[in-house]
Write a structure and sequence with these properties.
alpha+beta
Length: 127
């Protein structure tokens, strides 16, 4: 699969589709949609919001799109570097009380903590 490197509207649209297709195949391989992260000492859940946020942000750059293709490695091996309160003025972070920044090989994995369910949800992947 060839990932477009350009910054045109068509390239970004193609990268969004690649990310969507990748998540569909990832979910087929991981039907429970959870992966244990040793640094966080918790399972990270992949949900609809995970796909939407990542698709919208990672598709902007070729490098971030490539990083998404390493999702399982990121989810398992990323190391916690920082915790911050969720942005109260961001409707996409409304369901989270805390955002956790994890890193692996220069890639940032942002995970939100949902206090109501006491679970961590993959929020976004970026380089």
């Amino acid at each position: 699969m060839e990932i477009p490197r350009g910054n045109s509207r068509e390239d970004i649209k193609a990268r969004k589709q690649i990310i969507s297709d990748f998540y569909a195949s990832w979910i087929a391989e991981h039907p429970d949609k959870i992966v244990w992260n040793e640094s966080l000492k918790a399972f990270i859940h992949v949900k609809f919001q995970s796909i939407n946020e990542t698709k919208g942000k990672a598709s902007i750059s070729y490098e971030s799109t490539c990083a998404v293709m390493e999702l399982t490695t990121l989810l398992t091996k990323a190391i916690v570097k920082k915790r911050t309160p969720a942005k109260t003025n961001d409707k996409n972070q409304k369901s989270f009380d805390e955002m956790v920044f994890l890193y692996h090989n220069g890639v940032r994995l942002l995970v939100g903590h949902q206090k109501s369910k006491d679970e961590y949800v993959q929020y976004c992947v970026l380089t």
